[in-house]
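tokens incoming
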């Protein structure tokens, strides 16, 4: 929630773009993948929001993180199938079909959105989803 608010604040500033310090990216990737594997989600919110917060172009970050997420999900799924097995193949196939359809549509739409607007949209999405999750927990 705090990171979403910070991204919203940064979206209204006119600061020059900074280059990402790649020294911390493997640690960030490990933490994001660990959260994704343990809790079923976390790669996108953790990695995307942190990299956007560092000042990089939201379009590049979203595209890069989503590409890497394919591999993270692929290997997480492989490990879970190996150790646990999957009985709900219809759900898995539905998610795959939905992702294959949605990915190119999202890429085409994002070409037409200005970086500041995209940054605001990401910030609002993080704030709304975090607030909803906090509401569910603390009611």
């Amino acid at each position: 929630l705090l990171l979403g608010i910070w991204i919203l604040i940064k979206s209204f500033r006119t600061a020059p773009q900074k280059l990402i310090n790649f020294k911390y990216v493997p640690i960030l990737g490990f933490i994001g993948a660990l959260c994704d594997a343990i809790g079923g989600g976390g790669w996108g919110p953790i990695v995307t929001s942190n990299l956007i917060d560092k000042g990089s172009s939201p379009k590049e970050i979203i595209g890069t993180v989503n590409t890497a997420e394919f591999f993270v999900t692929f290997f997480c799924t492989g490990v879970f199938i190996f150790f646990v097995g999957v009985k709900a193949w219809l759900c898995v196939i539905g998610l795959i079909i939905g992702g294959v359809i949605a990915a190119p549509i999202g890429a085409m739409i994002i070409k037409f959105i200005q970086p500041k607007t995209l940054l605001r949209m990401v910030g609002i999405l993080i704030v709304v989803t975090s607030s909803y999750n906090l509401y569910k927990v603390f009611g």
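note: The chain has a mean pLDDT of 81.
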